[in-house]
Amino acid sequence: MEISLPTFDFLVVAPEIVVLITALLVMVVDMVIGREQKGRLAWVALVGVLAAGALSYYLWDGSDPALHDMLAADGYALFLNLAILVAAALAILFSLEYTGRVGLAQGEYYTLLLLSTAGMMLMAAAINLMTIFLALEILSISLYVLVGLNRAERRSAEAALKYFVLGAFASGFLLYGMALIYGQAGTTSLAGIRAAVQAGGEPSALLLVGLGLMIAGFGFKVALVPFQMWTPDVYQGAPTSVTAFMSVGAKVAGFAALGRVALYAFGDLQGDWRWVLAVLSALTMTVGNLAALRQANLKRMLAYSSIAHAGYALAGLAAGNAQGTSGLLFYLFAYAFMNAGAFAIIIAAGRFEGATGGGETLDDFAGLAARKPGLAVAMALFMLSLAGVPPLAGFLAKLYVFGAAVRGGLIWLAVFGVVNSVISAYYYLRVVVSMYMREGRPAAVPAPVCAGLQVGVALAAVAIVLLGLWPGPIVDLARVAALALLGG
Amino acid sequence: MEMVIFFILAVLAVVAGIAVVAQRSAVRSALFLLLNFCSLAGLYILLNAQFVAMVQIILYAGAVVVLFLFVVMLLGMERAEESPDTRRYQAVAGGLLAVLLLGGVVWALVLAGTGTASATATAGSVRSIGAALVGDFAVPFELASVVLLVAIVGAVVLAKAKLEE
């Protein structure tokens, strides 16, 4: 028997390889440099992330190459790469001072951050059940560790354990679903599954149960109701810079794979899964928003808000059309900036003297506008954008997904979304009111804010304004990316 | 000849399996488990599945049993007599489940029929699995190595006794 070695077109996965190599590089550099210089690791990581972003953009020429029916560098993957790398770059900027303050092991921190980023990018590129699962494990295991990295904080360890146990459970669901689908389709390739779905007239129960289990598995990763139980505890317990990263990255990756499986592999069974996703979407946004109303801790509030946003984004997927898909992609891209930015302000607020709640409570934000006008303006922008106030990015994102839902015949879902947005305005605006209309403690002296964090916050704030006022280029990219998936 | 080897290995596997649950000493149970795994590996070789046999020896007989022994010895639970098992329903439930499993397996075998499937010479061989790993499944194989890397880094950073100040 002759063993034929396959040819590798490494260019297809060049961005992922760059991120992986950077992770290894960080480990090596961590060994050689002195203890006082550990801060430089962040710059190594940042350069790698930016290089991967540039490569992703450069690779995007519409040829949509694939590697062995396992990974693809189509527009869909590359667009999501950009969103993931934005989250990673912002997280690195926000970590510059925070990792030292909290006492995280910097070498391992940036290594795991990059490995997790690579896992997310691989998940966006995966076109085979095998690679989807492996990529999911890469990103999940590194996130479990990152969540528990703060050894001085007991809540961090608790969050890590909770996330790990429930995450392993969700992986089990996902694998079971994959096994059933493989059992029916006889292949793990998404293209093969698509062919099998098209060939058989009436869909078999195995396929539908398999798809349902996979939706549950991905639903856990992106925190859909009823798989959201872990979210508030984990987001609150994790180091804030990790929360900023995972609240965006894990969602983007989860939606990426869910979108590929539902829209591509099971595209011909839309009638069977659309209503499930629509119901999940309505449930998720409602439960997330109602729970967020009662939170005094900002990290917890943003955790529930991120659940609600998963619901909004899912509406784009439930629409099942090209507008919905490009709307979902735009949503994830805008969400990366506004959500990561909001967590960055919490990181900055943790340094203020007299911040009794670690910068995490509404009281710590009282009178912020007088002390730190720049940060307050940025936070107000993030909150308004999350609430969906025009003309910011969050408004357009909601407009696109709800518009697509209406076109897809899900008018009730769009109504649900709009009502929910109105409800959510209450708790987002409460933060703004606290910053601008309440008196801060007189003793509270603002501490200097790290320059890297300032740059990151400024970039995120400018991005959501620009995306809101001038969305054309990104919307066009999202449209091309959606067509790459739907093949239109 | 094959039949003789099969019966020797099969009897050995069943006897060792019974001994695993019958022993009161946890260490002896683990050692009988080792014997059971090794005889199963022999059966796999008879079925022409050399790779599965090697994995059985390396992973189960090597790693898993050693892990069991480590845990048993570290926790000092060598003997189970000290805590007499008073819960009878456990034994009943265990017996019921065993009968159920046996019934399920027999049922599946009867359904499958008695025709002999020709064992293909290459299906489970080291060669064909190696070819699949470097061929069609090279990409997942590489990704699995990244998963291991993540696990190693994660285990080290979480298990570190103390952060250096």
What descriptors fit this protein?
heterodimer; A: 488 residues; mainly alpha; 1% strand; globular; B: 165 residues; Four Helix Bundle (Hemerythrin (Met), subunit A); extended
* Poorly predicted runs of chain A: none
Backbone CA Rg of chain B: 21 Å
Q: What is the CATH class designation of the domain at 1-80 in chain B?
A: Mainly Alpha
Which fold name fills CATH's third level, the topology of the domain at 1-80 in chain B?
Four Helix Bundle (Hemerythrin (Met), subunit A)
CATH architectural category of the domain at 1-80 in chain B: Up-down Bundle
Radius of gyration of chain A: 21 Å
The assembly state of the depicted protein chains is heterodimer
Low-confidence stretches of chain B: none
Percent of residues in helices of chain A? over 70%
Would you spell out the secondary-structure blueprint of this structure?
The complex is a heterodimer of chains A (488) and B (165).
Chain A (H helix, E strand, L loop, with lengths): L13 H19 L7 H20 L6 E2 L3 E2 L2 H28 L3 H20 L3 H19 L6 H32 L4 H10 L5 H18 L8 H7 L2 H26 L4 H23 L5 H22 L2 H28 L18 H4 L1 H15 L5 H15 L3 H27 L13 H19 L2 H15 L2
Antiparallel strand pairs in A: 1-2
Helix pairs in contact in A: 1-2, 1-4, 2-3, 2-4, 3-4, 3-10, 3-13, 3-18, 3-19, 4-5, 4-10, 5-6, 5-10, 6-7, 6-8, 6-9, 7-10, 8-10, 9-10, 9-12, 10-12, 10-13, 11-12, 11-17, 12-13, 12-16, 12-17, 13-15, 13-16, 13-18, 13-19, 15-17, 15-18, 16-17, 16-18
Chain B lengths: L1 H21 L3 H21 L3 H26 L12 H25 L13 H9 L3 H22 L6
Helix pairs in contact in B: 1-2, 2-3
